[in-house]
């Protein structure tokens, strides 16, 4: 668990979604309120808020058998640290002795000492930050939010730490909120009631979509991997953003239960997520939402690639790179190191894909040369990259600018699949690198194909934002031939905009119709219809069209779904027979009524049907090979 990958733990350096079950259940990692909790089968519990609050809970069986910054656990606090009093240098020396052997020697932010004079909080700042508007709220006994915790967890140490942190941060409100959040969480961990402290301290906690704030919520929230998690929780309540009814945690997002993904080997994956199922990249897997399970097939990295974990993700990475250079008048060096001179002034393919391999992203880089004063030599004039159905040009005429359609922006061209292009200007001696802007700017292409609507609207915004600019007139027929009067949606579908030619872009509020969500269809932003799903899953637990879950059903016949108006041409009624299999109730048969006939599907695989034209029963059975 690291601050570098907030909210997603790493298992063997690979980032994974919560919850995680490892070692046949011996180790669990799961969300708990605003923190992540790591629990082992022998009682060790570690809680981390992804920022600065770390808590280790250890059973008494480890009494007098541990060491480290947390002390020796012998119930004698005075011998945890050598008798140094307030000698900061001695404390630093003692703490340094516990530096892990895994510490990076060259880590520039790893040090064991105060850089210069160790900070001291001035008395006037102590008086200011000790008031009830700051740290004083921790000690406030009369109607204070932490008053019920004082007898269980003495506030003095937290108050003193709060003063120190606020002195160092000049009273930053965000630091105060983190200190108070730490004290509140520790109080709740020890079973104390905590009253509303966020309102008087000015520390609101906004909750993400499909969730709501609970000051004392369940510490074991329902997840896609474990819907019944709250029912078996034995932990004290925690401050949390709890999922709304009918929603559970998928990773760190609250989603309807029908949008849950898959679990494999104790790890959770989102619907449609693809990943390598082994450490050697020999098994490519995907979470199939329709099947509700992970499907894998044999696969391999291509020649020239190695299986590696990069930025927390296992992937096939190029084992090396190669560079092609065009420079001077011009001199060419191929990817394989062959040098040649060529003075042509036409447009030539410099590099392009010639393979049908679906894992390779198509691209083409062309170069155009020109004469400058002498017809005996030529120089690189324009370089054009075609990728993701877009054309980007760099030219000697417009140095340090990228031309996208009719739009220009500062920067270099860089694609998401690690190909780069740069004009080889004769005015830059020995250039085999990008022309630099000040400050350097990258124009990065999106990873979706064809062109991303987000890139389109970023471009529109940039053009319109130029003060008093006539640059917007260059927008004419922008990307992919946007035509006059063509209507487009913004990335979040909150506005519909119509392009009326140079200088004219009219936008108005827009909302997707009921049952539709904002998304991409063939690379274009659109409202996409999402059909409803209702299910009866193991032990006849049901999930409604709106994602509300229900417990097991008793035996009997139930109306599963039906159109309300029997006069509707699309009328139907679906009944479900719930019977006892000896172990637990199960769906024994489904009966579908329509204006055209009746169908019964039984648990044994037999199907009976009759139509209004031929009102007699016909049985269909599975044919076995």
Number of helices: 7
Radius of gyration computed on alpha carbons? 32 Å
Note the main sheet: 7 strands, antiparallel
Estimate the strand proportion: 25-35%
Helix amount: 10-25%
Broad shape: extended
* Low-confidence segments: 405-484
Overall average residue pLDDT? 75
Instruction: Report how far the terminal alpha carbons are from each other.
Output: 51 Å
Count all strands and give the number: 44
Structural class: mainly beta
Numbering strands along the chain, what is their spatial order in the largest sheet?
7-6-5-4-3-13-12
Relevant terms:
six-stranded antiparallel sheet; seven-stranded antiparallel sheet; 625 residues; mainly beta
Which helices and strands occur, and which strands form pairs?
Blueprint: E1 10-11, E2 14-15, E3 17-22, E4 27-32, E5 35-40, E6 45-48, E7 54-57, H1 88-96, H2 123-129, H3 136-139, H4 156-168, H5 173-189, H6 198-201, E8 211-217, E9 238-243, E10 247-250, E11 253-256, E12 262-264, E13 267-269, E14 274-276, E15 283-288, E16 293-298, E17 305-310, E18 313-318, E19 325-327, E20 331-333, E21 339-341, E22 347-352, E23 363-370, E24 379-387, E25 390-395, E26 401-404, E27 407-410, E28 412-414, E29 420-421, E30 442-444, H7 453-465, E31 486-489, E32 495-499, E33 505-509, E34 516-521, E35 524-529, E36 535-537, E37 541-543, E38 549-550, E39 556-562, E40 573-580, E41 585-594, E42 597-602, E43 607-611, E44 618-620
Parallel strand pairs: 28-30
Antiparallel strand pairs: 1-2, 3-4, 3-13, 4-5, 5-6, 6-7, 8-9, 10-11, 12-13, 14-15, 15-16, 17-18, 19-20, 20-21, 22-23, 23-24, 24-25, 25-26, 26-27, 28-29, 31-32, 32-33, 34-35, 36-37, 37-38, 39-40, 40-41, 41-42, 42-43, 43-44
């Amino acid at each position: 668990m690291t601050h570098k990958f907030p909210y997603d733990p790493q298992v063997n350096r690979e980032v994974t979604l919560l919850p995680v079950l490892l070692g046949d259940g011996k180790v669990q990692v799961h969300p708990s309120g605003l923190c992540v909790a790591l629990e082992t089968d022998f009682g060790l519990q570690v809680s981390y808020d992804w920022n600065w609050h770390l808590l280790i809970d250890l059973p008494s069986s480890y009494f007098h058998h541990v060491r480290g910054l947390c002390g020796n656990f012998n119930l004698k606090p005075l011998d945890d640290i050598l008798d140094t009093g307030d000698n900061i240098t001695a404390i630093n020396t003692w703490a340094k002795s516990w530096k892990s052997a895994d510490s990076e020697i060259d880590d520039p932010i790893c040090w064991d000492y105060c850089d210069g004079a160790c900070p001291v909080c001035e008395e006037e700042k102590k008086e200011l930050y000790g008031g009830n508007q700051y740290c004083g709220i921790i000690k406030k006994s009369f109607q204070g939010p932490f008053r019920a915790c004082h007898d269980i967890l003495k506030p003095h140490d937290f108050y003193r730490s709060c003063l120190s942190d606020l002195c160092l941060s000049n009273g930053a409100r965000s630091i105060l909120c983190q200190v108070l959040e730490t004290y509140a969480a520790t109080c709740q961990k020890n079973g104390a009631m905590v009253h509303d402290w966020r309102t008087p301290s000015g520390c609101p906690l906004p909750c993400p979509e499909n969730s709501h704030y609970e000051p004392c919520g369940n510490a074991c929230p329902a997840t896609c991997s474990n819907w019944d998690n709250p029912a078996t929780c034995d932990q004290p309540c925690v401050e949390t953003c709890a999922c709304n009814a009918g929603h559970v945690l998928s990773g760190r997002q609250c989603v309807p239960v029908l949008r849950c993904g898959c679990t494999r080997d104790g790890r959770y994956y989102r619907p449609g997520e693809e990943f390598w199922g082994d450490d050697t990249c020999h098994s490519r897997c995907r979470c199939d939402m329709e099947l509700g399970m992970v499907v894998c097939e044999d696969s391999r990295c291509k020649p020239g690639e190695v299986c590696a974990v990069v930025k927390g993700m296992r992937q096939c990475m190029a084992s090396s790179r190669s560079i092609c250079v065009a420079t001077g008048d011009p001199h060419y060096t191929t990817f394989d190191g062959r040098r040649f001179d060529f003075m042509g002034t036409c447009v030539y393919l410099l590099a392009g894909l010639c393979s049908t391999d679906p894992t390779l992203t198509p691209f083409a880089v062309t170069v155009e040369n020109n004469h400058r004063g002498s017809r005996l030599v030529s120089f690189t004039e324009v370089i054009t990259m075609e990728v993701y159905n877009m054309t980007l040009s760099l030219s000697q005429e417009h140095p340090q600018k990228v031309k996208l359609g009719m739009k220009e922006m500062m920067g270099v061209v860089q694609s998401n699949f690690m190909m780069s292009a740069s004009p080889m200007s004769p005015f830059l001696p020995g250039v085999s690198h990008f022309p630099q802007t000040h400050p350097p700017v990258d124009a990065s292409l999106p990873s979706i194909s064809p062109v991303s609507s987000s890139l389109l609207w970023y471009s529109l915004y940039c053009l319109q934002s130029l003060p008093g600019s006539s640059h917007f007139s260059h927008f004419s027929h922008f990307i992919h031939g946007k035509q006059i009067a063509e209507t487009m949606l913004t990335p979040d579908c909150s506005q519909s905009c119509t392009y009326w030619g140079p200088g004219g872009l009219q936008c108005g509020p827009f909302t997707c119709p009921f049952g539709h969500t904002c998304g991409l269809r063939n690379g274009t932003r659109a409202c996409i219809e999402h059909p409803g799903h209702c299910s009866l899953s193991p032990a006849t637990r049901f999930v409604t069209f709106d994602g509300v879950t229900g417990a097991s059903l008793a035996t009997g016949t139930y109306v599963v779904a039906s159109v309300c108006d029997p006069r509707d041409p699309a009328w139907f009624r679906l009944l479900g027979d719930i019977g006892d299999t000896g172990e637990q109730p199960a769906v024994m048969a489904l009966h579908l009524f329509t204006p055209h006939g009746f169908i019964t599907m039984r648990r044994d695989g037999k199907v009976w049907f009759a139509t209004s034209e031929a009102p007699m029963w016909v049985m269909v059975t599975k044919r076995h090979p």
